[in-house]
Amino acid sequence: MQPRGKAARASGALLLLAALTGLAACGTDDNSGLPGAVDFSVENLRCAPDAGTLLASGSSAQANAMEVWVNTYQANCEGSQINYKPTGSGAGVQEFLQGTTAFAGSDSLLSEGEVNESRSVCRDGGRAVHLPMVAGPIAVGYHLPGVDDLVLDAPTLARIFDSEIRRWNDPAIARLNPGADLPDLPVTPFHRSDGSGTTDNFTSYLHASAPREWPYEPDKAWRGHGGQSADGSSGLTGMVQQNEGAIAYFELSYAHQNDIDTVRIDTGASEPVAATVENASNAIAQADVTGSGGDLALELDYATREEGVYPVVLVTYEIVCDRGNDPATLGLTRAFLAYTAGEEGQRALAEIDYAPISGEIIEQVRRRVDAMA
C-alpha cells in the first residue's frame, strides 16, 4: 500500500495527537508523557503492501518511543494497526516464544536456551535474533527536598539499593556531596517488581562497577535485599514522586516527563557524569557487536571511566525471527521495523530523551530487516 497524501497524513496526525493528549489527561497509559507537539507525518515512508494487524509486546523502557513510532506508521499507512503492549521484557519474550506476537522488545539478551526455544516458532529453520533499536540512559531518580544536584558512585548506589545505607545524611553520601544540606531522612529505595531488562542492565552496572558491594549476578528479577517494589517504569516513577526520601531507576524520558531530579554518577572521571542522551550515545559508540550470523547483540562497558560517558545505559532490542514467524504478518513487521530503524524513526528518538543507534550498528540493523523473508 502506498502512503497517503500530505493532507490525509496531516489530518491523521492531528487526530492521533488529540487522542494521545486525551490519554495523557486520563493518566491511564504507561507511557502517557509524550511531548505536546509530536509530528506524525513522514515523507516517503514505505508501507507494507498489505494492511493488517501486528501484535508485539515487551520492554516498557521503549514504550514512549514505540508510541511515537506506532502512531507515525499508522498515520502514514492506512489500514495498518500495530498493537504494542509494554508488559516488560520478560513477559514480552515469553509471549514471542509462545508464538503469540510478531516481535518482542527486550532490554536484555536472550539466553542460549531461549534462542533454541525460538526455533519452534521461527519459520524454515530460523531463529530469534537481536536488533538494537533504542538506547538511552537509565536515570537514577530521587525525591530529596533541598537537594537538586546529587552525586553518587557505584559502591554507594549498591549499598543504598541493598538497604545498607538507610539515611540520606550517611557519611558515604556526604563525602560525595560536600556542602550539600543532606536531610536526616530515611532512604527508601524502590525496584521493579516485574521481570525487567531495566533491572538487568542496572544491576549489570552495579555488579561490574562495585562487585564487592553488589555481589549478585545481574538478572531481570531483583536480587538485592530490602527496599520496596513497583510495577514497570511508570510505577517506580510514581513512587518517587509520592515519597520523600525515595530513590529508583528508570529511563531518562520518565524522569524528564515527571520533573524528577536525577543523580550524577562519579565514575572516576574528572567530573561526575549526568544522565543525558549525549552521554549515553558516547557509551553506545564504545559498544562491541558480539552476535554472529545476523544477530546484533551488543556488549557494553558498564565500568567505563571515560570522560563524558554515562555508564548506566540500556539498549532495547527488537527480538525477531530472522526469517519471520508468521507469513501473514511478515510484510507488516518488515515495513514497520524498516521505518523504526530508518533515519526518520531514529531521528525521532532524541526528541523524547532516547539515544539513536548510529553508525555501522544501525546500518547492520537495516540490512538485517531488509533480509527478513
UniProtKB/TrEMBL annotation:
<protein>
    <recommendedName>
        <fullName>Phosphate-binding protein</fullName>
    </recommendedName>
</protein>
<keyword id="KW-0732">Signal</keyword>
<dbReference type="InterPro" id="IPR005673">
    <property type="entry name" value="ABC_phos-bd_PstS"/>
</dbReference>
<feature type="domain" description="PBP">
    <location>
        <begin position="48"/>
        <end position="344"/>
    </location>
</feature>
<feature type="signal peptide">
    <location>
        <begin position="1"/>
        <end position="24"/>
    </location>
</feature>
<comment type="similarity">
    <text>Belongs to the PstS family.</text>
</comment>
<dbReference type="Pfam" id="PF12849">
    <property type="entry name" value="PBP_like_2"/>
</dbReference>
<keyword id="KW-0813">Transport</keyword>
<keyword id="KW-0592">Phosphate transport</keyword>
<dbReference type="InterPro" id="IPR024370">
    <property type="entry name" value="PBP_domain"/>
</dbReference>
<dbReference type="InterPro" id="IPR050962">
    <property type="entry name" value="Phosphate-bind_PstS"/>
</dbReference>
